[in-house]
Design brief:
The complex is a heterodimer. Chain A is an alpha/beta fold. Chain A has 7 helices and 31 strands. Chain A has a 7-stranded mixed β-sheet with strand order 5-4-1-6-11-8-12. In chain A, strands 14-17-20-23-26-29-31 form a 7-stranded parallel β-sheet, with helices on one face. Chain B is elongated. The longest helix of chain B has 18 residues. Classes of the chains: A alpha/beta, B alpha/beta. Chain A: Pathway: Nucleotide-sugar biosynthesis; GDP-alpha-D-mannose biosynthesis; GDP-alpha-D-mannose from alpha-D-mannose 1-phosphate (GTP route): step 1/1.
Chain lengths: 361, 415
């Protein structure tokens, strides 16, 4: 079985992290974002994944060679020379997605983190016999998104409503699709929107069905949602009683600690923290609701909450870092500094406190 | 004087990518030394000035950028200006004097009698031939270019005190807290080869001190004792300061313009200074037009030959338009740098801004700023491939590459 992951563009909303690596390679819960999706696809028997990209293909391809070997799954890139929207890339990758088997293929959006109930989706798709299946998820504020209006009992999609002013439903497109190869016949090789052009056409013919996604869903394309997404992800690990979660008197709630990371005496870690490979957390440190990426050193007595600390950065002694502070790669916060929502570009030293949210270039 | 043995070598320090983050966002896409001022890469200006040095044998660019980033530039500038230019990559920081010492073998290859040292991010008239003459007459180890500045601003720089008659350097101090002098170090020097002996002296002294002393644990905590590696030698603190007043160094004063190009805002100002210089020395490089066959030009304007400017546009003063830019009908450009492949659509207005490579400025849109070169948002900077949609206003803001502005903003940094 095959799959396409829409990787798209520059990831500008996740800057400054995406100034150092392309977005799919930004780590989430100690693993490159795209690896979460590739592993979920591999688990249900997908043998080939096509990445639809238009930015920094060399960096992506290098990374992928490593994972192709480790995961024993074929990974190829389909590169857009001009932006093709959300459907165009499928037409571009046509030859890679269709084979003689006539099997449906998955399409995933690379910004999405969820439970990936892909096996259940295959069953759903077979049972309704339609041309295309999409996952939808229930949200509190549907007007921010595109709402999918479905027939309650069958899940047949009646229509799509973009950012509705009045309540029409609370299910939105979760960015996970299972499509028959015939869908590709509906897509031309030009900038095309799958939600605005392709799906409404299939829905009008009564051949599009929606399945409600069980479990959590988050679009982690921007820092605030990234931090919320980590909480939901770790929560789902807890529900599965995953052994990956850390335990100990110094751990509160759900915490992920890479086996190569070191945590000192007298620390209090959690809830909702991910500590990456090679990190050093010195004694007396308090971490909550934050991500600490590979190679970071947090010095003694520091306190970090609701923030993302980028690769190889350091946070000084007694520093306090909070309120959506995002440190890019190789950022060094000096001792005793306070950062309230500082967004710091790579290779900087922070020698004076940031009292209110600001971008440091 | 001026015999065939009197060869001169020039060294231009160009810095490196993780140094000088102050030049972001422009430095996210291009090494700062290659950023264009008045239509030419920043480093072209000191290189062209070096051509006026009699008996110039070689120019070295020393920096931390990868060789491949400078390979193309170095070969094309060598051909274009018919002067040999080489790029040397430093493997680790050696300090401003240590860097020179690190490459002494290459620098001394042609047995030069004099060595110029220039900083690439200095904007001035580079009176190098006059400096050489003065230096020869002083007979010292080195001569430093100095300029008078306002007493209030002097403490941002190295302050020098010189004898008014002999021009000997009597005292040098870097960024002092109290007022010492209103003459400051311009970052342009000329040395005789015995500068290498002086630098080596500092290295050895530091090495000896490190092995002889047993530092107590208390002393080891003091910041002043955080010892520098023996091959890290700073020109200002380690050479000029100690040797001031010992008849080794002299000063040469310039009364022309001088600025440091540390931020994108300053690069706009310095582009204007170089355009004014072209008006004096090579006016045919500048554009002209009166709105009939060509666009109306006001003040000093540079337009690359491949750029297309609609005749109903009005350009200048202080505008610089790079290769393949397309300026549409009725566009007004004032105090700006328009980089390669930019498209500016009809009736747009750009004032006090830098528009990045391949960007697109929509019809009737307005990109402007206060023009205060010293504040962070005083000049609007659009990074590479930024799109400003029709009728959108962007004021006193910085926009990082690949963004689309579809709503108006003021005083913002858009990541």
């Amino acid at each position: 079985m095959k799959a396409l992951i829409l990787v798209g563009g520059f990831g500008t909303r996740l800057r400054p992290l995406t100034l150092s690596v392309p977005k799919p390679l930004v780590d989430f819960a100690n693993k490159p974002m795209i690896l979460h999706q590739i592993e979920a696809l591999k688990a249900i028997g997908v043998t080939e994944v096509v990445l639809a990209i238009n930015y920094q293909p060399e960096v992506m391809l290098n990374f992928l060679k490593d994972f192709e070997a480790k995961l024993e799954i074929k990974i190829t890139c389909s590169q857009e020379t001009e932006p093709l929207g959300t459907a165009g890339p499928l037409a571009l990758a046509r030859d890679k997605l269709i084979d003689k088997s006539g099997e449906p293929f998955f399409v995933l959006n690379s910004d999405v983190i969820s439970e990936y109930p892909l096996r259940e989706m295959i069953e759903f798709h077979k049972s309704h016999g339609g041309e295309a299946s999409i996952m939808v998820t229930k949200v509190d504020e549907p007007s921010k998104y595109g709402v999918v209006v479905t027939e309650e009992s069958t899940g047949k999609v009646e229509r799509f409503v973009e950012k509705p002013k009045l309540f029409v439903g609370n299910k939105i497109n979760a960015g996970i699709y299972l499509l028959n190869p015939s869908v590709l016949d509906r897509i031309q090789l030009r900038p095309t929107s799958i939600e605005k052009e392709v799906f409404p056409e299939i829905a009008a013919e009564g051949k599009l069905y929606a399945m409600v996604l069980p479990g959590f869903w988050m679009d982690i394309g921007q820092p605030r949602d990234y931090i919320t997404g980590l909480r939901l992800y770790l929560d789902s690990l807890r529900k599965k009683a995953s052994p990956k979660l850390a335990a100990g008197t110094h751990i509160i709630g759900n915490v992920l600690v890479d086996e190569t990371a070191k945590i000192g005496e007298g620390c209090l870690i959690g809830p909702d923290v991910a500590i990456g490979p090679g990190c050093v957390v010195e004694p007396g440190v308090r971490l909550s609701r934050c991500t600490v990426m590979r190679g970071v050193r947090i010095k003694k007595h520091a306190c970090i909450s609701s923030s993302i600390i980028g690769w190889h950065s350091t946070v000084g002694q007694w520093a306090r870092v909070e309120n959506m502070t995002i440190l890019g790669e190789d950022v060094h916060v000096c001792d005793e500094i306070y950062s309230n929502g500082g967004v710091v570009l790579p290779h900087k030293e922070i020698k004076s406190s940031i009292l209110k949210p600001e971008i440091v270039m | 004087m001026g015999g065939s043995e009197e060869r001169v070598v020039a060294v231009i320090m160009v810095g490196g990518p993780t140094k000088g983050t102050r030049f972001r966002p422009l430095s996210l896409n291009t090494p700062k030394p290659l950023f264009p001022l008045a239509g030419q890469p920043m480093v072209n200006h000191p290189i062209s000035a070096c051509k006026r040095i009699p008996n110039l044998a070689q120019i070295y660019l020393i920096g931390f950028y990868e060789e491949r980033e400078f390979a193309l530039f170095v070969s094309s500038i060598s051909n274009e200006l018919r002067v040999p230019v080489r790029y040397l990559k430093e493997d680790k920081p050696h300090g401003s004097a240590g860097g020179l010492y690190n490459f002494r073998d290459q620098i001394m290859e042609e047995s030069p009698s004099h060595i110029f040292l220039l900083n690439c991010d200095v904007c001035c008239s580079f009176p190098l031939a006059e400096m050489l003459e003065a230096h020869i007459s002083y007979r010292g180890m080195g001569t430093i270019l100095v300029i008078e500045v306002s007493p209030e601003s002097a403490n941002q720089f190295g302050e020098l005190v010189a004898d008014p008659v002999t021009n000997e350097l009597l005292h040098y101090t870097e960024k002092p807290e109290t007022f010492v002098s209103d003459r400051i170090n311009c970052g342009v020097y000329i040395f005789t080869p015995d500068i290498f002996t002086a630098i080596q002296g500092v290295s050895s002294q530091r090495k000896d001190r490190a092995t002889l002393r047993r530092v107590s644990s208390f002393e080891a905590l003091q910041p002043a004792n955080r010892s520098l590696p023996s091959d890290f030698v700073r020109l200002d603190q380690d050479i000029l300061s100690p040797l001031a007043g010992k008849k080794q160094f002299y000063v040469y004063e310039t009364t022309d313009y001088w600025e440091q190009i540390k931020t994108p805002g300053m690069s706009l100002k310095c582009s204007g200074l170089y355009l004014a210089q072209f008006r004096r020395t090579s006016p045919d490089l500048l554009a002209s037009g009166d709105g009939t066959k060509n666009a109306a030009i006001s003040g000093n304007v540079y337009i690359h030959p491949s750029a297309k400017v609609h005749p109903t546009a009005k350009i200048g003063p202080n505008a610089s338009i790079s290769a393949n830019a397309r300026i549409g009908a009725g566009v007004r450009l004032v105090h700006c740098i328009i980089l390669d492949d930019v498209e500016i659509k009809e009736n747009a207005v750009v004032i006090h801004a830098i528009v990045g490579w391949k960007s697109s400025i929509g019809r009737w849109s307005r990109v402007q700023a206060s023009g205060d070169h010293n504040t962070k948002l005083g000049v609007t900077i659009l990074g590479e491939s930024v799109t400003v949609e029709d009728e959108v206003v962007v004021i006193n803001s910085i926009v990082l590459p690949n963004k689309t502005m579809n709503v108006s903003v003021q005083e913002e940094i858009i990541l």
